[in-house]
Amino acid sequence: MATGQAMQVSDKELWCLATAVYFEARGESYRGQVAVAQVVLNRVKDRRYPNTICGVVFQNQAKRNACQFSFACDGIPETINDQKSWAQAEEIATKFTDGELYLTEVADATHYHATYVRPKWAPRMNRVTQIGLHVFYKFKNGWSFG
């Protein structure tokens, strides 16, 4: 894995990133979990999304099933019950924000979905890669959801 850019974040922001990794990708490989973290940080850097990790992870939380990170708006209470997976999610969040992790194949992807769903937005975006059960995308030049 290549290295990325280090960024200073609060403990709360680290928790939000670890939470996204845990609930979205704990069943995926280490690389798959890093890829999800990278998408979160790519959104933070993209003007179309909130400029904080927690803002990105919980964007549209009040709109049932209308957010990128389904755990945040599926109406199911989230409970961390796998301490080993939680520890790994925390490690990935820390290493990613420290600039130690970066996947060149994910690059600047801002979206992903599981292979078993077909979101309506996917055909309008550029497919970047697939890691495990997640397919990653980035915006086509000049295209936006707006």
Automatic annotation (TrEMBL):
Where does the Cell wall hydrolase SleB domain lie?
Answer: 27-137
Q: Identify the Pfam families for this entry.
A: Hydrolase_2
Any coiled-coil ranges, and where? none
Q: Which molecular function GO terms apply here? A: hydrolase activity
Under what name is this protein listed? Answer: Cell wall hydrolase SleB domain-containing protein
Question: What lineage, starting at the top, does this entry show?
Answer: Bacteria, Pseudomonadati, Pseudomonadota, Alphaproteobacteria, Hyphomicrobiales
